[in-house]
Design goal:
mainly alpha; globular; 2 domains; 61% helix; single chain
């Protein structure tokens, strides 16, 4: 499909480039999405982050939603920060929330993220994911 084909679907130029690069990496055997399930969380995140355009948040979202991993926390997620602050009745900075999740919520950090996203959707009057 190429970058222009992806742009025609509504993707921004950078996103279209990154998806094209990811497709090329799959075609070249540089990334094996099926094989990610055999890796530890840390190894899977590292493999994904090695792809240009994929950062820790994107890698975490992939592992949460596509692989259903229960102990993945997406770092720097603004919706999670706002939902936690609303539930706690006090704001929290992003770094502190990420540290709290790492220290206190394992092995169910992904479950906590889903609960907070659902609450965030409720706060915004939206349907949860």
């Amino acid at each position: 499909m190429g970058v222009e084909g992806l742009r025609a679907l509504g993707l921004s130029t950078p996103k279209a480039r990154y998806i094209s690069l990811a497709a090329a990496a799959v075609a070249a055997g540089a990334i094996d999405f099926d094989g990610l399930s055999r890796l530890s969380d840390e190894e899977a995140i590292a493999a994904l982050v090695a792809l240009k355009g994929v950062g820790p948040w994107t890698a975490s979202i992939y592992l949460l939603f596509c692989e259903g991993r229960a102990d993945i926390w997406p770092p720097n997620d603004v919706a999670l920060k706002h939902a936690y602050g609303a539930a706690a009745g006090a704001s929290i900075d992003q770094r502190s929330l990420d540290e709290k999740a790492a220290a206190d919520w394992g092995p169910w950090r992904g479950v906590a993220a889903h609960v907070l996203w659902t609450y965030y959707a409720h706060l915004k009057g939206r349907s949860p994911i």
